[in-house]
Amino acid sequence: GKVLVLHGPNLNLLGSRQPEIYGYETLDDINNRLREKAVLADWDITCLQSNHEGGLIDAIHTARLDGTQAIIINPAAYTHTSVALLDALNAFEGKVIEVHLSNVHKRETFRHHSYVSLRADGVIAGLGVQGYRAALEAVISAFQA
Ligand code: DQA
């Protein structure tokens, strides 16, 4: 299998950015744990972070054509603003899992709506870094023979 993990804007600051909300693990910590898990299951994994909407969209376009079966995405603030990201995900035919570290539903109302959720097959919010691990497990087991 082949999975793409996409992290949106400001997630490069994880570990030092509002740790009371987002935790103390860095993005490298998260990605390394995901890579370990993927390798054990014999999955090819690419982890990518971008602070730019277009960078995330380009990565989704690449995933359409390179055999990627699933995208795990934390679109960060673009969750709540980006029709372009939704359109790109709609052009991708594989599985999409949306992950948020925090429980967006108990935060400001502008975080309650997600464009990406209109496309996502599953949504995980509020489980911290554990959410990414659960998403990867779900992806792997969904494609198990
Ligand atoms: C987030 C929640 C978003 O509302 C916020 O803009 C983020 C991170 C999360 O992981 O909890 O940057 O996606």
UniProtKB/TrEMBL annotation:
EC number(s) per UniProt?
4.2.1.10
Q: Which reaction does it catalyse?
A: 3-dehydroquinate = 3-dehydroshikimate + H2O
Which residues hold substrate?
A: 74, 80, 87, 101-102, 111
Say which enzyme class the record assigns: lyase
| Biological process according to GO | amino acid biosynthetic process; aromatic amino acid family biosynthetic process; chorismate biosynthetic process; quinate catabolic process
Give the domain of life.
Bacteria
| Keywords, ordered alphabetically | Amino-acid biosynthesis, Aromatic amino acid biosynthesis, Lyase
Q: Where is the active site?
A: 22 (proton acceptor), 100 (proton donor)
- List the InterPro entries: DHquinase_II, DHquinase_II_CS, DHquinase_II_sf
Q: Pfam families from the xrefs? A: DHquinase_II (PF01220)
Q: Please explain the role this protein plays, according to its UniProt record.
A: Catalyzes a trans-dehydration via an enolate intermediate.
Q: How does it assemble?
A: Homododecamer.
Specify the protein name: 3-dehydroquinate dehydratase
State the species of origin.
Answer: Halovibrio variabilis
Tell me what gene encodes this.
Answer: aroQ
